[in-house]
What does this fold into?
Amino acid sequence: MNRPANGLLDRARCCLAVIDVQAFFLDKLPGEQRAPLVARIAWLMRAALALDIPLLATAEDTPRLGSLVPELATLLPAGTPVHNKVVFGLAGQGDIRAAAEATGRDQFVLTGLETDVCITQSAFGLMEAGHAVAVVVDGCASPAPHHDIAIQRLQAAGAAIMTVKSVYYDWVRDLATLARVKAKIGGDLPAGLTL
It folds into this structure.
């Protein structure tokens, strides 16, 4: 796999994937988990954009299940598509796989829903294609107990299991970059996220 020798994510090699954050899947989670999850993903998207890290967004079966939630869709740069995903693993669909390859990145940071299905299958497909994968444990979800079991499975398969905080600091790396990113995204953090 294409991992840096020191195990850190390299922002010049990363793409942030936002997978199937749709009301249909959010509604399966306990109510108190939904808004904080979306807020953490949104904050990570803003950090990625501040660091020129490309975003890859998908929504499953959009004609039936709707698109990405507005809180995230509005953060996508103009012209960034939300790919209609009709397979569980994004690497298994030609147009999405082509979009991933077109980023020129070989490290994929995965967020979204659901951890045990679309996140897991996307991770496995990307790893099979030779990419390094990091799964953001507090940036994805499935109803219990499926999330925790999926995280164990992903870690055993070689995906890096990270938090929003650890991804952010891998991307930032130094105080000058930290100050530049904070100036772009502000200092407000999602509830429960400490840096």
Observations:
- The CA atoms of residues 114 and 142 lie 5 Å apart.
- Residues 31-50 form the longest helix (20 residues).
- The radius of gyration is 15 Å.
- The chain is about 45% helix and 20% strand.
